[in-house]
Amino acid sequence: MPKKKMGDPEKLIKMIADQIPQAEIMKKIGIKTSTQLKTAYANALIAAGKVPAIMGGRGGQKAESKKKLVGVGKRGSIIVPADVVSGLGVGKNERFSLRKTKAGLALKKV
């Protein structure tokens, strides 16, 4: 679906600030639904720098910096870094069941 052209964002912000009725604003801008008007208004506020843009995805770069690698030892043991284990509150000699899921592997405390 092509992106709708929305004229001047400052003009839309001013019309809303001047409390011009919704139907009149929609007619002047050429918008058919109130949802489109609300989206255009939010985009205008972001373009004007009055509202910060929402960051997409699941945290972007932050997720990469928190990623910890898990290895497999010579005997097939899964090796989890000590800081990760202590951060999870897992003590010595605790046992887990392991199962394969669509996402990968899941551990469950037994």
Can you walk me through this structure?
By secondary structure, this protein is α+β, with helices and mostly antiparallel strands. It has two domains: 9-47, no CATH class; 63-109. Helix content is 39%, strand content 13%. It has helices at 9-17, 22-29, 34-47, 61-66, 82-87, and strands at residues 71-72, 78-79, 96-100, 105-109. Strands 1-2 form a two-stranded antiparallel sheet. A two-stranded antiparallel sheet has the order 3-4. Strand 1 and strand 2 form a beta hairpin. The longest helix is centred in the middle third of the chain and has 14 residues, at 34-47. The protein starts with 8 loop residues before the first helix and ends with a strand. 3% of the residues are buried.
User: In order across it, which strands form the biggest sheet?
Assistant: 1-2
Content-based structural category: alpha+beta
Largest sheet: 2 strands, antiparallel
Helix % is 25-40%
Secondary-structure element series: HHHHEEHEE
Question: What overall geometry do the principal axes of the alpha carbons give?
Answer: rod-shaped
The low-pLDDT segments are none
- Report the β-strand fraction as a percent range: 5-15%
* Number of discrete helical segments: 5
What would the average pLDDT be, to the nearest integer? 83
Domains, number: 2
Radius of gyration: 26 Å
Head-to-tail CA distance between termini: 50 Å
Number of strands: 4
